[in-house]
Amino acid sequence: MGNHVRLQQRGYDVHPETKSTYDRLSRNMALVVITVSIAPLILVGGLIFDQFRSIYREKVYSHLAEVVDKHKDTIDSFLREKLHEIQYLDRAYSYDQLTNHKFLANILRGMQQQFGRIFVDLGVIDSAGRQIAYAGPFDLLDADYSEAPWYRDSRLQETGISDVFLGLRQSPHFIITVNNDDGERRWTLRATIDFLAFSHLVENIRIGETGSAYILNRSGVFQTRPQEDCGQDLVLTPVRDIPFPALKDVTIRESLGSDDEDYITVSAPLKDGDWTLVYQQRTSDAFSAMTRSEYITLAIFLLGGVAIVVMAVLISRMLVVRFQSIDQESELLTRQMAETGKLAAIGELAAGIAHEINNPVAIMIEEAGWVRDLLEDEGKSMASYGEMERALNQVSTQGRRCKDITHKLLSFARQTDSLTGDVALPSLIREVVDISMQQARLAQVDFHLDLEPDMRPVHASVTELHQVFLNLINNAIQAMEPSGGTLTIACREEDGHASVTVADTGPGIPAANLSRVFDPFFTTKSVGKGSGLGLSICFGIIHQMGGEIDVESAVGRGTSFFIRLPYPPASHSGESKNKEMNHD
After folding, report:
1. Fold exhibited by the domain 93-198
2. For residues 543 and 460, what is the distance between their CA atoms, to the nearest angstrom?
3. 186-216 per-position pLDDT tens digit
4. How does pLDDT run across 283-333, given as a tens digit for each residue?
5. How far is Cα of residue 66 from the mean position of the Cα atoms in its chain?
6. CB–CB of 162/175 below 8 Å?
7. Fold (CATH) for 417-584
8. Which of 269, 253, 279, 280 is nearest to 75 (CA)?
9. Which residue, among 302, 565, 236, has the nearest Cα to 425 in the 3D structure?
10. Does the reported pTM lie above 0.70?
11. How far is CA 491 from CA 427, 458, 469, 499, 503, in A?
């Protein structure tokens, strides 16, 4: 809408249908630019996005699998080391030494000093399941373990590591056993492992906010305490297994929790498959960094897309406005060329009419002179002689006036006469003023001429100077219509140049338009009243002659045009000194 108003203010007429066409063009251009720009962006971005998700998921799975595998090795190593230490005791000391309470207490104290309080107590159990020797903080001497599941299971193998249980001490723990048979008797050396130390070793895996590890036995019973945020009441339903051939003992699985959250579980066997180390973490937590990166990337893509759309709309609109302006200027140029053609045709017509009128007027003047001669010879005695002589004088005077007007009109209409010669500027200016006098009277404009009569002539084309001064005078008269004013024309010699000033008392030219008055087709007049070529032609003519033309104006104070024309060289001036200018 704003463009429509601006074009109307500049003199353009924007039809609704034409405006609709330009709007469609703007939309089509914007759609093409947006499609061509965003389509590759979406395709490439989608491909990169998919590859990023795939690589990042593989990286997360690989990292979790390696962490669990290394942690599994650490726990297995811990259990093997403790088992080997108990085996060492069994081989290093005899049955009699181990069943000595004081000796067994010294061994426990030495082990605790060396390894910390990982070993809680030591004990020797006979073949009937009764603990016959004990060193530790509890009163477990003579305790009967014959019906304890861990004891019955351990009797079937040389060594054993029990599940975690409460037992007689009513606190979670597990036992390492070494069975011995010296031929005379069977007995078992047992050691209790501190559950808190072992539990801390397992729980050392903690990644993100929800990642935690725990151990299950073959029956699915927790051997270590899970974290509070993945408690024992949480039920995981497997959804799919993630193949990970790099670590065959590690299983990665995506599961759905009973809390409707997605989980990643990574598991690995411990203690020859009796236990399973399980690490679980919410999928959203495991891939939080990826999700954050995706949101940032998506925001960048959206901002880029919005920028592309905005720029496409703005650029297409700017181009369409420019096209619209060019089309309107082209249409205006066509109209102005048509007006110029009409003016040229009118000029030719006026020249023909002036020539045709000039011949009858010349005959009328000659006939009036012949009649006067007849009256001088034969009609002095007539009573109306005086009246007839007055009439004949009037006919001769008006005839010469008509001849002078047609002579000037013919002189101006000879546009093809571009021959140069010496031109007396004061007389040429008076001639143009005479032609414009009638228009000035109608516009209530008074002429004030300040012409230096003894100026040297300039070397120029009479026709072209005619055109320059006529354009300037006509523009000044039209500017002062209808309220009238004064048009001052001064002509004098200054600094070795011929200087001409044409100043009016019209409304003046706004400062914003002052720098454009000599541009082709620039006009503030309505269509049909000005082509915008007059001042541009004047500028070209003066500069072609080697002169200068400037303008000064202020709103409400009138406008002044200043012309400076060079004088011809002295030798050329001498050669042309005696030539007369013929304007017929």
Report:
1. Beta-Lactamase (3.30.450)
2. 12
3. 899 999 998 888 888 887 777 778 888 888 8
4. 888 888 888 888 898 898 889 888 988 998 898 888 888 888 888 788 777
5. 46
6. yes
7. Heat Shock Protein 90 (3.30.565)
8. 269
9. 565
10. no
11. 11, 12, 12, 6, 12
